[in-house]
Design goal:
The protein is an alpha/beta fold. About 55% of the residues lie in helices and about 15% in strands.
C-alpha cells in the first residue's frame, strides 16, 4: 500500500508538472520539445499507475480464488474424514459378517460330522445289495470301488466292519492331500483330498482296505460326509491365494442316493456354494456309467448349485465327452501308462496326443494320473497333458494346521 501511495503521489507530481509545462508552452514560456517531454512524463506515469492498479486487481482475484480453494479443501477434508469413518464401519461389518459366516460354517461342519457318526453307529450290519443306488455300487475288491487304492497306495487286507464303524463313529477319519501339478512346470495347481481311517490302535487304514468293507456296510456315505466337510474347510482356507487351487474330493455313488445323508450334504453344499469353483466332487467311471435316474438327478442338483465334477479311476476311453460335459464333468483322470502305451487296449478312438485337445473342446481338462517315475513324466510331454498326479510329484500327506503356508510336498516336487 505504501508503494502504491508513493507511485500515485509521484504520478500526481508528474501530471502537475506536465500540465504546467503545457501551459508554459501555450504562453510561449517553454519550447515545443520541452513541452513534449513534460507530456511524455505524464503519459509514462499514467501507464505505470494503470499497470499497478491492474496488478492489484489480479492479486485480489488470486486472493479470492485462494480463499475459495481453502474452503474447498476444508470441505474435501471433511468428506475424506467421513469416508474414512464409513470405510472403517464397513470393514468392521465385513469382519463381523466373516466371523459369523465362519461360526455358521463351523457349526454346519460339526453337525454334519456328528450326523455321520450317528449313522455309522446305527449301521452296524451290512446293507442289502438291492434298493436305491444298487446299480451304482461296484463289487467288493473292484479297482473302481469307491475310494479304491491308487497304484502308489498300500493294498492292505480288508479290515473288519466293526473297526470301520467305530472309526467313523469316533471321528477317526483323516484327510490327506496329494498335489496335482502343472506339466511340465510341476507347480502345484490343485489338490486331491484322500480319506483314511485310524483303527482302534491308531494305525492308519488306507482306502484300498476300508472302502470295500464300508461300501458293503453302507458306511461310505458317512465317510464321504466327513471327508467332504473337511475338504470344504481346506478349500476355504486356500481361498485367500491369488489363484486358489481346487480341492478334489472323492465321493461314492452311495452318497448320492442315501436318504439320510444326501439331503444334509445338499444343505451343507447349498450353504457353501461360494466354494463351488474350488471344491470338486470326484466319481469313479464305473459308477457314473452305471448311474440310474436317481443318481443322475442328484448330480443335476449338485450341478445347479454350481459344482462341477471329476471322473476318476478311468478304465477305458470309449467315452462320450459331450455327454460327460453335459453331466457337469470338467476333469478326466487317465492313468499315465494308458496315455503312453495303452490307448488301443483302453478302446480309445483317438490318438493320445489328440485326447487333451478333444476333451478341451468340451470344456474338460485331462489329468495324467499315477505318475510314479521320471521316465513316465518325460514321456507324457509328447501328449499335450496339462496336469499330472502321482507319487513322483508328492504322496498323500495329512492336512497340516498351517495349510495356507507353502505345502511341503510342493517344495519337494
Amino acid at each position: 500500500m505504501r508503494r502504491l501511495a508513493g507511485i500515485i503521489i509521484a504520478n500526481l507530481v508528474m501530471a502537475t508538472a506536465g500540465f504546467g509545462g503545457w501551459l508554459a508552452w501555450a504562453h510561449g514560456t517553454l519550447s515545443g520539445v520541452e513541452a513534449l517531454l513534460a507530456v511524455a512524463c505524464v503519459l509514462i506515469g499514467s501507464g505505470q499507475l494503470a499497470a499497478l492498479i491492474g496488478r492489484d486487481r489480479g492479486h485480489a482475484a488470486l486472493a479470492r480464488r485462494a480463499a475459495r480453494l481453502g474452503e474447498v479443501n476444508e470441505r474435501l477434508g471433511d468428506e475424506a474424514m467421513r469416508l474414512r469413518e464409513r470405510i472403517e464401519a464397513l470393514e468392521h461389518a465385513f469382519r463381523a459378517a466373516e466371523e459369523a459366516a465362519r461360526a455358521q460354517a463351523q457349526a454346519q461342519f460339526e453337525a454334519l460330522e456328528a450326523l455321520a457318526g450317528e449313522i455309522a453307529d446305527l449301521r452296524a450290519n451290512p446293507v442289502a445289495q438291492h434298493g436305491p443306488g444298487a446299480a451304482f455300487r461296484a463289487p467288493a475288491g473292484d479297482p473302481a470301488a469307491p475310494g479304491a487304492a491308487t497304484p502308489e497306495q498300500d493294498t492292505a487286507p480288508a479290515i473288519a466292519i466293526e473297526t470301520v464303524r467305530r472309526a467313523v463313529r469316533d471321528g477317526r477319519v483323516e484327510l490327506c492331500l496329494q498335489p496335482i501339478v502343472t506339466l511340465p512346470q510341476r507347480r502345484t495347481r490343485h489338490y486331491e483330498a484322500i480319506a483314511r481311517l485310524r483303527d482302534d490302535d491308531g494305525r492308519p487304514v488306507l482306502a484300498g482296505a476300508f472302502a470295500p468293507v464300508a461300501a458293503r456296510a453302507g458306511l461310505m456315505p458317512a465317510i464321504d460326509a466327513i471327508a467332504l466337510r473337511r475338504a470344504a474347510d481346506v478349500a476355504r482356507r486356500l481361498a485367500g491365494r491369488d489363484r486358489p487351487p481346487a480341492v478334489f474330493c472323492d465321493l461314492s455313488a452311495q452318497s448320492l442316493v442315501d436318504s439320510e445323508l444326501f439331503p444334509q450334504l445338499m444343505e451343507f453344499l447349498a450353504a457353501n456354494r461360494a466354494l463351488a469353483a474350488s471344491l470338486v466332487p470326484e466319481f469313479a467311471q464305473a459308477e457314473v456309467e452305471a448311474a440310474g435316474p436317481l443318481e443322475l438327478e442328484s448330480l443335476a442338483l449338485l450341478r445347479e448349485l454350481g459344482f462341477r465334477f471329476s471322473l476318476d479311476r478311468v478304465r477305458h476311453l470309449d467315452i462320450d465327452a459331450g455327454r460327460l460335459a453335459g453331466l457337469g464333468f470338467r476333469h478326466l483322470k487317465v492313468p499315465a501308462r494308458t496315455l503312453i502305451d495303452g490307448m488301443e487296449e483302453a478302446g480309445a478312438q483317438i490318438h493320445a496326443a489328440d485326447l487333451g485337445t478333444h476333451l478341451a473342446r468340451h470344456g474338460i481338462e485331462l489329468v495324467a494320473d499315477g505318475v510314479g517315475d521320471e521316465r513316465t513324466a518325460v514321456d507324457l510331454l509328447d501328449f499335450d497333458v496339462g496336469l499330472g498326479q502321482g507319487a513322483l510329484f508328492g504322496s498323500p500327506r495329512p492336512v497340516r494346521g498351517d495349510l495356507a503356508a507353502e505345502p511341503e510336498h510342493r517344495r519337494a516336487a
